[in-house]
Amino acid sequence: MDYLYAFVVGGIICVIGQILLDTTKLTAPRILVIMVVSGVILTAFHIYQPLVELAGNGATTPLPGFGYALAKGAMDGAKDGFIGAVTGAIKETAAGITVAIAFGYLIALIFNPKSIR
Amino acid sequence: MSTNRNGKTSGGSGAKTIQKKEVAKAYEKYAEKFTPKPTYLKNCIIAFIVGGLICMAALYVKNRLTAGGIGEEDAGTFVTMMLVCTAQLLTGFGWFDTIGKVCGAGVIVPITGFANSMVAPAIEYKKEGIVLGVGSKLFSLAGPVLACGISAATVVGIIYWAMYKF
User: Fold this and answer.
1) From CA B109, how far away is CA A48, in angstroms rounded?
2) What residues contact B75, with CB distance under 8 A and at least 6 apart?
């Protein structure tokens, strides 16, 4: 049952992205930004949390989930004080961001551009 | 374009060209009705299935890891790291573009798209050097995402801090 929820919720979020991509003139980076920021905002209003509890990775794997992790870190950190509120966002997502930067940099150094045109 | 040319040459055989025009227009409308919708629907279905499968795979790996004795939060982090690494490796091999063309938002909206958006321009601008080419282009697409996301989250965090405080 968990898998079904993960499939449906993750799929629906991707369909929203696809509709934005097809029907509006927004480019992919703008859609990524919209997704992350909407994840942050939805989490701030406690709308995204139930979705995560229902669908697990279905809600955390798409980019709104990245926004969710950022906002959740900041909101949890806010309980400990101002410093917590400022550091919380990156603390929560540190692993993902670090791997994306470090591994990405290595990959870019190792591989050469392929010309598929 | 073709209708304009028809309009100019319509002096000779009037009725026929007008009829042709009307037919062409009617056909255009008819075709318009039918062409875009199937691709939208098809794209959406593919995005739904691919996105859903990626999320399901992520959940499966996470469940396997938690069954192996790793804490839930650590397992989630591991899954994110695996997805990022896989997407970046695929980008390095040049396969992600092909997958992206077929699957559209199905691979762009999950964290894999974010990982791809870092490596793709970095490889592309490798000629400009290791520092200013790869190092800076790594963030040409991911930078806005990180900047907007982190700023928004920090604002939320400070608002929550103020709410707890006062």
Assistant:
1) 16
2) B62, B65, B66
Query: Looking at the partner chain, which of B115, B123, B154 has a beta carbon nearest the beta carbon of A100?
Result: B115
Taking only the tens of pLDDT, chain B with its 166 residues reads: 444 444 444 445 667 777 888 888 888 888 777 665 567 888 888 989 999 999 999 999 999 999 888 888 888 888 999 999 999 999 988 888 888 888 888 888 899 989 999 998 998 888 888 888 888 988 998 899 999 999 999 999 999 999 888 8
Specify the number of domains making up chain B.
2
Contact criterion met (CB below 8 Å) for A63 and A43: no
In a domain, B106, yes or no: yes
For residues A14 and B50, is the Cβ–Cβ distance under 8 A? yes
Chain B residue with minimal CA distance to A115? B94
**Residue A111 forms contact with B (CB below 8 Å):** yes
> Could you say which of B84, B111, B138 is where a domain stops?
B111
Contact call for A18 and B44, based on CB within 8 A? yes
Enclosing domain of residue B163? 125-166
DSSP 8-state symbol, A25: -
Residue A49, sorted as left (phi over 0), alpha (psi -120 to 50) or beta, turns out to be alpha
How far B23 CA lies from chain A's nearest CA (Å)? 28
Chain A 25-44, CB below 8 Å of chain B: which residues?
28-29, 31-33, 35-37, 39-41, 43-44
**Is this complex's ipTM strictly greater than 0.90?**
no
